[in-house]
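Dear colleague,

Thank you for sharing your sequence with our group. We've completed the structure prediction you requested, and as agreed, I am returning the results in plain text so they can be pasted directly into your records. Please verify that the sequence below matches your submission; if there's any discrepancy, let me know and we will rerun it promptly.
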Amino acid sequence: MSKGAGVQPGAPVQPDAKTARLIDDLRARAKALGFDAIGITSAHTRADWHEKLTIALDRGWHGDMDWMAETASRRAAPEALWPEARSIIMLGVNYGPDTDPLQLLAQKSTGNISVYARNRDYHDIIKGRLKDLAGLLARRAGAGVKVFVDTAPVMEKPLAAAAGIGWQGKHTVLVSREFGSWLFLGAIFTDADLPLSEPHAESCGTCRRCLDVCPTNAFPAPFQLDARKCLAYLNIELKGQIPRQYRAPMGNRIYGCDDCLAVCPWNKFASHTKEVKLQARDALTTPALADLADLDDAGFRKLFAASPVKRLGHARFIRNVLIALGNSGNPDLISRAEQRLSDPDPMIRAAAIWAFRRLAPSDRVAAIRQQTQSREHDMAVASEWDGDLTPPF
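Please find the predicted structure tokens below.
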């Protein structure tokens, strides 16, 4: 094994016996650590990755995620992130659920949290394992290593596809024959030239279930995603109020959206092929909206300790819960929306008005509006009393 000694970018490296043993040991250690998939690709990316990223950014599909534009040059080229990088080991952990997450959409008084966020934060789950595996490579090969788990401008999905773990589906998520759309991904960059895995051919065929199931038509075309219309973007990344036209389609999704992942036909294998079972927390699987709406900041932090939901922050989380309340059709939840009409945070007050108006009888709405609207100094919040509750989508 060499470190940049005259190997052409992206060219397969014929391993000697020592390197072959190292790769076998890395694969064995990865499996012991709980990784379900492993592959190796070159740090020198295909030219079309930068082109595709540029098109998405130029069209504004990244929405408020300014960091995507700010880091575009490094995101499109791993060698720009670390010039010494020669090879990238991509790893995946299967988190496929045991039941269909779409069934929870019918339980309208229950909050629906994306499958990946029902476990402990995947950054914490994977990063320690990556460091362990990278340490083995460093010791055995004297190689430089860096590990990444969604914490740097790394295009994990195209890299994982190039490493043969799967392919990017029409919903832009990585799809695997063994694990469907349910893989956490992590990367180990190294300055060592390692034997490359064969890329996986795209295998979606004529299937378009992921495109057709999207509640907000967030896919302009197969393999393209306009994040500004994606419910997962809107209820996680968006810092302001959720646009009115997307509130009803949000249903009871209070963190993320699994629709396009959950309908993938390849998922049929995912729940049966886990090396290490990831246990979802019961409290995050079917939480009652009534209980969530009562959470103060301390209660929110306690409930979502070690969960990716905690990064959302209390205000945006309650915003999401209130939208779900408004979509519940449950009059027993009117008081939960009404109690938030005087919340100090204007984003929460605005969402509370929308939910209250959706649930409460018209005479009750008129009375509360008269009491509160004159005291409201935030024009955006005040406008919620007049906004269309069910605008055409």
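Summary note from our side: Residues 122-141 form the longest helix (20 residues).

Kind regards,
the structure core
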